[in-house]
Amino acid sequence: LGFFYIQDAAAQIPVEVLNPKDVVLDCCAAPGGKTTQLATSAPVIAIDNDKDRFVALENNLERLGIDNCIAYCTDLRTVNKKFKYILLDAPCSGNYMLEEKWMQKNSLKRIEERSWIQKELLAHALSLLEKDGVLVYSTCSLEPEEDEDVIQFALDNFPVRLEKIETTGDPGLTAFQEKKYHPSMKNCRRLWPHKTNTIGFFIARLRK
User: Fold this and answer.
1) What is the rounded distance in angstroms from the CA atom of residue 98 to the CA atom of residue 85?
2) What is the pLDDT of residues 52-78, one digit of tens each?
3) Is the pTM of this model over 0.85?
């Protein structure tokens, strides 16, 4: 009937961390959980290039009676408007701690390929971010290649800084295997299912 959209507790946190006060760009919006959550506090421009998932986004916007969201089925990299608030809940490899047969469906190569896609999406999203604007990057993956590696790429190539997140979870990693990350990576949050009783999640808040 449209009274509720059920989300895992962890999936609700990125929108709370972004806390938009003006029009927000939702970069990978389908199926629409975070989009409809965003729309309770700000107008939303929602983007997704997956035609099948976009149908679910449309259905959820209609079912919930959302009237302050415009959705486009297009690639994020075609967008050229500036925004003060951006949410990039990036497509990822998923969560090995909860997803059945995750190890059989994934490989290091696939994770690294995802990481490059995430970096491309984040790079374009940051080019759309206004000065002093805020971008929240999140995944439901716990792989450093899809989390800290991607954020380190942003810190190395864009005039952005990480802001501290006041929410549940462990700090982001400042080192992994032979890699060293910026000390501010501890401002990110990693949600481990066995600690938070949620799905696994990674969240970072970047300010330009």
Assistant:
1) 31
2) 999 999 999 999 999 999 999 999 999
3) yes
